[in-house]
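DM from R.C. (forwarded with permission)

"hey, sorry to bug you on a friday — could you get me a structure for this? deadline for the figure draft is monday and I only need the backbone to look sensible"
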Amino acid sequence: MLGGRPILNGVNLSVNKGEKLVLVGPSGSGKSTLVRCINRLIDVDSGEVLFNGIPVNKINPIELRRKVGMVFQLQIIFP
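My reply, with the result:
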């Protein structure tokens, strides 16, 4: 929730092991927010995010991030 309104609503997504997924959409549509929820950079207020059938909030974030790769559009690793 942001300011009392939902950020993501009605999202249902399954990705099989070994698949690569690309999220595209207009600015502000929730792409980055969804990825952050999957990798526990932010936690969801309601609903569930599962990894291998286990809620991600029950998985150690470091272990989860070792198994789920992310590449953001803007990389700010080196100047």
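R.C.: lifesaver. The longest strand covers residues 50-51.
me: no worries. The CA atoms of residues 7 and 28 lie 9 Å apart.
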